[in-house]
Design brief:
Number of strands: 10
Order of helices and strands: HEEEHEHEHHHHEHHHHEHEEE
Shape: globular
Radius of gyration: 21 Å
Helix content: 40-55%
Largest sheet: 8 strands, mixed
Strand order of the largest sheet: 3-2-10-8-4-7-5-6
């Protein structure tokens, strides 16, 4: 009888815990703080930032594409790790592995003086190339390498249209194994896909949302897969920085989740948080959203 009562009490206890949704944690963060570790709940200076990151082979960094500070953080990260003797492999959201030869030409200075045009940057990214150029230059200057990790446009279109008959065997295998059932990820991105502005002929809002989500998952899965391949080829004094849009990394359920399914290589996730000067020195962050935040005001 005592055993029955004991297990009944356990069931009630754990049922009660399971029904509670996680809430944001509020951290006290000095207004002047730039880097904040959610692990140790402390502000990090430049050296402490690099110290915290150095043990990890792979660093995921979220980008707010129009932010100069967001790009400066990656430049500082490249230079900080390079100063400690590491070469950097930089994984780029805006290029596919098929673009690696083009990126090598850029790195070798073989393209014309207008590198932005030669790389097709305006069509790929759409924001000012001068935001990303200092990152590329820092990687190249320190002997690192630029890589593409995303799907090319043709494959994206096939995934969007569910045109598996046009895919190669490798593409079809990738497509057929997409995991579209990660509930926490669905909930995270649902607000962005709730209304479609570019419906195809005869397409319903629900069908459009499903199509957009399918492409999002394929995008994340490809970048996670290709990052894992790069991680497995890292040398002893080499680090992989995966610099992609912040939503692809939020709550560690995007590219970083798909990466973790392919490799056990240790990784760290860093996300940007915009901050208004002279606001209250607090930071509200959902549990497990990332490992380090960098706060900025552009």
């Amino acid at each position: 009888m005592k055993q029955i009562l004991f297990f009944t009490a356990l069931l009630v206890l754990f049922s009660g815990c399971a029904s509670k949704e996680p809430t944001a944690i509020t951290y006290d963060v000095p207004v002047a703080c730039k880097y904040y570790s959610l692990h140790s709940a402390e502000c990090l200076d430049e050296a402490g930032f690099i110290d915290t990151i150095e043990p990890y082979a792979v660093i995921f960094v979220g980008d707010h594409h129009q932010s100069k500070t967001a790009h400066n953080v990656v430049t500082e990260l490249v230079n900080g790790l390079s100063g400690r003797g590491y070469k950097i492999a930089l994984a780029n959201e805006w290029f596919s592995p098929q673009d690696d030869a083009l990126l090598e030409q850029y790195s070798n200075g073989e393209l014309d003086s207008n590198g932005s045009k030669a790389l097709g940057w305006a069509k790929r990214a759409g924001y000012d190339f001068n935001l990303s150029k200092p990152i590329f230059d820092a990687v190249i200057a320190n002997g690192g390498t630029l890589y593409g990790i995303n799907m090319d446009q043709k494959f994206k279109k096939m995934v969007s249209e569910q045109n598996s008959s046009a895919m190669s065997e490798e593409q079809r295998t990738f497509y057929e194994n997409l995991d579209l059932n990660v509930t926490v990820h669905q909930q995270l991105v649902a607000p962005f896909f709730s209304h479609c502005h570019h419906l195809k002929n005869g397409e319903t809002q629900e069908e459009c949302s499903a199509r957009m989500y399918r492409v999002q998952v394929a995008w994340d899965s490809m970048m996670g897969q290709e990052s894992a391949k790069l991680a497995q080829g890292l040398q002893e004094k080499e680090k992989l920085i995966v610099f992609v849009g912040a939503m692809h990394l939020e709550s560690k359920v995007g590219v970083n989740l798909r990466f973790a399914r392919k490799t056990t290589t240790p990784s760290l996730t860093i996300l940007p948080v915009p901050r208004v000067v002279n606001t209250e020195p607090t930071l509200d962050v959902a549990p497990g959203s990332c490992d380090i935040v960098y706060l900025y005001n552009d």
